[in-house]
Write a structure and sequence with these properties.
By secondary structure, the chain is of the alpha+beta class. The chain has helices spanning 11-35, 44-56, 60-79, 81-101, 111-131, 138-149, 154-173, 175-196, 213-222, 253-263, 288-295; strands at residues 202-209, 228-233, 240-249, 268-273. α1 runs antiparallel to α5 (111-131) and α3 packs parallel to α6.
C-alpha cells in the first residue's frame, strides 16, 4: 500500500535549493561578467536569448525567462512538480542575477582567459544545478523528453541544438567569437560531466521492497523506463522481497528518489554507474503492452 506522500519541503529539498542557488550565482556571474562582455554566448535557449538581446536590446534576464517559460510548462506536464519547481526556481533566480551582475564591471577582458574561466565557472554552476535535479535551460527539458522517445542521448540532443545556435552566432558575433563560444561550451560540458557524473551517464538502480507493483508503475509512468522484477528473500526478516531493476539517466536519479519517497520510503535502493548498454532498454519508450504488464505486477 502506498504511503502518504511527504510534503514538498523538507531538509533534503531545502539543501537542494541552497546548492541550486549557488549554481545559479556561478552561472550568472560567468555569463554576465566574463562571457557576454567578450561577445561569447552560452548554448541552448539561453544562447538564443543572448542573440535576441544583442539584436533587439531589452532586459536579458526577462528575455531568458520568457523564452524558457514554455519549456517549464511542458516539463510540469511530463516530469513532475519537484523537477519543475527546482528548474523554475533556478531559472527565475538566474534571470534576476543576470540583471544584478549587469551593473558591475566585467572581470576579464582577455578572450582566451574568458573562454577557460567562463567555461569552468559556468560548468560548475550548471553541474551543481543538474546534480540537484534542476536545470537552467529549456533545451535540457526537451532533450530529456526526446531521449524517452528516440534513440538519442540527452547529450546528443543538446549538442545538436547548440551546433545550430553557434552557427547562428557566426552572423551576429562573427566567426571568431562563435568559435570561442563553441570552445567555451566544450569546456563547460566537461566540467558539468565531472560535477554531475555526466549529462547522460547511465545509472542502474536496484530497489528492494516488499511490494514493487506501485513503484514499477510509477517508474514506467513518470520516467518511461521498463522495470525487471526479481524475487528475493530477506535473511534477517525471512520475508519475501521484490527486487526491481531499471536503467535510467543521471538526469532521472532525482526523479527516482521522489518516486520512492512518495510511494515507499522504506525501500532499500542502490544506484551505480553502467559502463555500457547493449540494446534499447534505456532508450525505449514503453509500449501499451508493457504498460499493461507493469500494472499487473504484484
Amino acid at each position: 500500500m502506498a504511503k502518504q506522500s511527504k510534503g514538498l519541503f523538507n531538509w533534503s529539498f531545502c539543501l537542494s535549493l541552497i546548492l541550486i542557488t549557488i549554481g545559479a550565482v556561478m552561472a550568472a556571474l560567468a555569463l554576465e561578467l566574463i562571457l557576454i562582455p567578450n561577445s561569447m554566448i552560452d548554448g541552448g535557449m539561453n544562447g538564443i536569448s543572448i542573440i535576441l538581446n544583442t539584436l533587439f536590446g531589452g532586459s536579458l534576464g526577462i528575455i531568458i525567462f520568457i523564452v524558457n517559460l514554455p519549456f517549464l510548462i511542458l516539463g510540469y506536464k511530463q516530469l513532475g512538480k519537484k523537477f519543475v519547481f527546482k528548474a523554475g526556481y533556478g531559472m527565475i533566480l538566474f534571470s534576476i542575477l543576470l540583471e544584478v551582475f549587469g551593473n558591475y564591471t566585467p572581470l576579464i577582458d582577455d578572450t582566451l582567459l574568458a573562454t577557460v574561466y567562463g567555461g569552468i565557472l559556468l560548468g560548475v554552476g550548471c553541474g551543481l544545478i543538474i546534480k540537484e535535479g534542476g536545470c537552467l535551460d529549456g533545451t535540457e527539458i526537451v532533450a530529456i523528453l526526446i531521449n524517452r522517445k528516440k534513440s538519442l542521448s540527452v547529450g546528443q540532443v543538446v549538442f545538436c541544438f547548440n551546433i545550430v545556435i553557434y552557427g547562428a552566432a557566426i552572423f551576429v558575433f562573427g566567426a571568431e567569437r562563435a568559435l570561442y563560444s563553441l570552445l567555451t561550451y566544450f569546456v563547460s560540458y566537461k566540467v558539468i560531466d565531472m560535477v554531475s557524473d555526466g549529462l547522460n551517464s547511465a545509472k542502474a538502480a536496484f530497489i528492494i521492497t516488499d511490494d514493487g507493483s506501485e513503484i514499477a508503475s510509477a517508474i514506467l509512468k513518470r520516467l518511461g523506463r521498463t522495470v525487471t522484477v526479481l524475487s528475493g528473500e530477506g535473511i534477517i526478516s525471512h520475508g519475501d522481497k521484490r527486487v526491481l531493476y531499471t536503467v535510467i539517466t543521471r538526469f532521472e536519479v532525482s526523479i527516482l528518489k521522489d518516486i520512492l519517497n512518495e510511494v515507499d520510503d522504506s525501500s532499500f535502493v542502490t544506484v551505480f554507474d553502467v559502463s555500457e548498454i547493449i540494446g534499447n532498454h534505456i532508450k525505449k519508450a514503453p509500449s501499451v503492452k508493457e504498460s499493461k504488464e507493469s500494472r499487473q505486477i504484484s
